[in-house]
Amino acid sequence: MEFDDKVPIYYQIEQYIDRQIIVGDLAPGDQIPAVRQLALTLTVNVNTIQRALAELIRQGILVSQRGKGNFVTTDTAVLAAMKKRVINAELAETYEHLMGLGMTPAEMLAALEAYIQERKDRDAHD
Amino acid sequence: MTEALMIKQLNYRRNQKQLLTDVNLTLPQGQIVGLLGANGAGKTTLMRLIAGSAVNFRGSIQVGDAGDAVARKAQVSFSGMIDGFNPNWRVGQVAETLAELLADFRGEDFYQLCDLLGLDQKQRIKRLSKGNQRKLRLAVTLSRRAQLYLLDEPFDGIDVMTRKAMLNSILKWAPELATLVISDHHVTDIEQLLDQVVVIKARTIAAQAQADDIRAQGQSVEQYFESFFGGDLDD
Q: Is B226 part of the contact surface with chain A (CB cutoff 8 Å)?
């Protein structure tokens, strides 16, 4: 995995696991790999993995079972809220950029709809 | 809790030259620490002193419960330990000798590390490429069971693919509670592995910080390191 060298790595690992849950690589109730295995897969140190997992456990996204390991929560409300937060973060960035170009919300909506239509047409031709 | 390393008021002179001045440094157990500094800043000297390879210093150096040089030697695995070995020896002979000399040397680990790193047991040390010599140093260092590992510039002259294999060896073989100190003058080699960085400049410790705390301020570890030298890495 390629890391952004200006963002704390534990935070990037949190985001990585969030995304794996959103796209379904990790399903609710799935066990996540052992700390040492994750450290080797991502080439980061064990303490960094532990900090990321502790944060995800604090948020209720992962559930720790004593002696068994860490599991994705089966609480779908928690996972839906996490997904919404991740999507909102992406939208916020786009929104700020378009605001910076002087666009109004109505113009943004129209531009986004037009863009989606163009992408659909283009992808259909590929 | 016992600290992995505790250095107090360390001063070291050799041949009428001050090599280290008022070094104070404490490192906890179970961490990977980057010892960063320009060439000639004193990184190797500091490692030799911690490992007990250099003596006659002022101040104190404590590794776990070990204070004097002999006790420290048993707790510290230093990558410089094979520097005096006969260059005609083969890789396998190095391991056999170390297994006889050191109670904590694991031959089995050494052979596995050699396989992982692609080192041939039958090669003579002097015939190894620079990169393979680095690999041998790493394999030997990680094959000991110690509290503190000191890796002096392990990635100097190493290509990207080899570096990846070496990083994985470090993660896989370091015991859980051990602390690793890795010196480097190219931070990017080891950046993502580090819990914390210690900057050594002008023969003393200039700074110590958690890697993710540095990044939380929007700075890369490399930028942080360079801020101490103003882009000029020659001491």
A: no
